[in-house]
Design brief:
By secondary structure, the chain is of the alpha/beta class. The protein has 4 helices and 5 strands. The relative contact order is 0.23.
Length: 140
């Protein structure tokens, strides 16, 4: 069994998290600043995946509260089509990420992290929250 990588695609930053090899625990891994080119962003993500030796990639799908696709979800779906080509042969799946950023912010506030410090890591923490949700769902 190999690691799973989770990606939280933002407009300015991309959060990356990774599971352990037993697929039990998710950990924040990296924040990648958008480079202005999907190709460059996807190559950076693929390098992370290769370094971590992942066997599956989960991408957060920001559905609206009622579960429908809004503009953000449609944008992620469109980007995932090109992302799949960059990750071939590693499979790429979408996973509901509703509330992950809110949960990440809340967790960091509880740890007394200040706003500027929180903003630097929230994307990878949100990716870890999403990945842990995925792992918990897959194991039940």
């Amino acid at each position: 069994m190999g690691r799973i990588m989770a990606i939280d695609l933002g407009t300015k930053r991309i959060g990356v998290a990774c599971s352990d090899v037993t697929r039990t625990l998710a950990s924040p891994h990296a924040v990648i600043e958008r480079r202005g080119s999907l190709d460059a962003d996807h190559k950076a993500l693929r390098r992370e995946a290769d370094e971590l030796e992942v066997e599956l990639v989960i991408v957060g799908l920001p559905l609206s509260l009622d579960g429908r696709d809004g503009p953000a979800a449609r944008g992620v779906r469109a980007e995932v089509e090109t992302l799949r080509a960059a990750f071939d042969p590693i499979p790429v799946q979408l996973f509901d990420e509703r509330f992950t950023t809110v949960t990440a912010h809340q967790s960091m506030r509880e740890r007394n992290m200040r706003g500027p410090a929180r903003r630097k890591v929230v994307d990878k923490v949100a990716a870890a929250v999403m990945l842990q949700n995925f792992l918990d769902t897959a194991s039940s």
